[in-house]
Design a protein that fits this description.
The structure holds two protein chains of two kinds. Helix content of chain A is 46%, strand content 13%. Chain A is α+β, with helices and mostly antiparallel strands. Chain B is mostly helical. In chain B, α3 packs across α12, α11 packs antiparallel against α12 and α13 runs antiparallel to α14. Chain B is globular and about 60 Å long. The chains are: A alpha+beta, B mainly alpha. The interface between A and B is medium-sized, with 29 and 29 residues.
Amino acid sequence: MATNSAASNTFFPEPRILPGGEKEFMMDVATSDLEVSMGPQHPATHGVMKILLRADGEMVTAAQPHLGFLHRCAEKIGENVEWLQYLPYTDRYDYLAAMNNNLGYSMAVEEVLGVEIPKRAQLLRMICVELNRVASHLVAFGTYGLDLGAFTPFLYAFREREWLLMIFEKICGARLTYSYLRIGGVFNDAPPGWLQEVEHFCDVFEEKWKEYYNLLMVNKIFVGRTANVGVITPEQAKDFGLTGPMLRGSGVSFDLRREMPYMLYGQAFEDGAYEVPVGKGEMGQLGDCWDRIYVRVVEMMESIRLVRWCLGSIEEGPVIGDVGKTIKVPPGEAYVAIENPRGELGHYVLSDGGKGSSRCRVRGPSFCNLAILEDIMPGTLLADSVAIIGSTDVVIGETDR
Amino acid sequence: MLINQPNLVLDSAPAAAESGNVTLHFLQGVAPEAVPAWLLPVAAAGVSVGVVIGMISVIAMLCVWLERKISGHIQCRYGPMYAGGWHGWAQTIADGVKLLMKEDMVPSGADRALFMMAPAIVLGAIFGAFVAMPLSPDFYFADINLGVFFILGMSSLTTIGVVMSGWASNSKWSLYGAMREAAQVVAYEIPLGISLMVALIVAGTFNLREASALQGDWFGMGWFVFKNPLFMIPASILFFISALAETKRAPFDLPEAESELVAGFLTEYSGIRWSFFFMEEYAAMYLMSLVASVFFFGGFQSPFTYLAIEQFGADSFIANLVGAVTLIVKSMFGICLMMWVRWTLPRVRIDQVMTMGYKYLTPLSLICVLGAAVWEAII
């Protein structure tokens, strides 16, 4: 009687007899996966991104990023406005590194235009771009700590970033959307004392940087949370076309500033003004989350060195080339890629000789870097998925544009 | 053995020989004869409950303010500065009033009864635990012989409320938070209890008032950590780590984990029900700090208490007051330590929490128990 009921019940099948004669009871309970929609309103997705997770308890078995919540048709707008009018729109896609976006677009237009940029303008551009890279990496570093539950490094990082934003405010009047780097050069010369303040910032930042490193990067819990998590092998990184710290975190030494030098980066590299840090798998495997955040933290220091080099070689002169009041761009096309804090930011512009571009396209680094999430997130814990998303340092404004 | 040593407080305090409620004794003394006898215990119970709730609420509010100030100063900012004037002391009151005014939201699809009951259970359990907590030799609500068990049991009851809230919320994030809470508390109750057992071996009593009174020698510094430093200091550290996990404080705040689970089991709560959970967290911190103070760091004994007892006698009002203030200051120190840890460290992962609890803390606390037992047998 008892055996019959046991056999008919799928939850309590017949016990298996083990080699030792022991009876092993196994419950045949199917646990169904949970579909969790992480986002678009979620603290860890850094904006309005949605990641559809399939989770078996805490274990993530599949992940799929869903984009487009912040789509503002930036590229299409670029085809409907004049050359210079598009510049403020570039500020808005990667709002943490607006100087870099200005630079990418300006350089693309300048390439078609064939205008020569004065040296002072180039150096001011480099200072702004590198300081903006520091500001962007500070946000990446701070919010990464926040993702892992460490609140304090975030506020320390924002304290320094605040100073940087004040520096930018002094040179162009805006804190986030600068539109300072114009087609042909920069908008205005630096105000008196600005370069000295930048130098002072560099001095202070070098001290603070050690604090950050000791506070978060070598923290036992932080290393435990990030080492061996979300490993991207160098081959995988190349296959997915990753760029920026995501690529360098996997040990591939590739930086557009060095590989395809633009402005004075080639000269600066020859002078030893900066190096390209790569992940070494110091705390765990090569290409884990720790390596990626390590690359960003070290890059901050390299940028400061680069700023110092620029400050050393700056000279008086004009700050904008001969582009005229209304920019007349001859027919032609150009694709210019620059090294954004997140990777390769490419701008493609096509001119038919009109007032604006007839084709304007952007290759956004975080958009391209996000594709790998689907591959590296399965098999991790829910908490790890937050660490992985944070380590991609995604800016939703730029993935969706 | 320590329990047999002559003790200043126990010997000189006649009140210690009686058991029962201080308020009841007081009321029996002052009540006119017309008052029926059955009314006195009821009134005493009402007064005691009022005092417990009032005291814990005030201290929880103070802790919330303190947390904001401490986190602010750690993070190079001021914290609240406006409400009330002096350093924003009234910020918590203002927040509490705001939370009271908010709409009492119950999400559609939630298990309404469970959802509304969970905060009450959580808060009731933690307030109940305070009943067994003496503040000074003569200031206590219930002199329970198995006080430690009562406190640990009541504080574990809060987990039921948390699991209820997570299940009833009809939200996946809440469910994750509740499951994490359940797993975490099961893992950390064990080292918490065992590390406390080390103190119990040294103390020889489960009664918190007696345990406190036992530490009055050595000029008020005869604390259990000093009486058996080799095992009690590790045990106190183990207790602190387990208490962090038990009270869901960072780095073990996985049930809330706002960057992972939105707000964990609190996701669907708002208004006054949310503030009940909030208050529970601070009350639990205070409770754990009090238990740690009593069983590791001398309870209400300190050189000041010693002097007050010498000067005015153990059952004098001043000695009791000094004792109560000593205990509260010690527990505040513990709370500040918890806040310091919270604003410094990142959060650990769930598997690391489990590994730490089962693989390291539990064996270590067992070693401490063994060592302390051998130590007590030898010395």
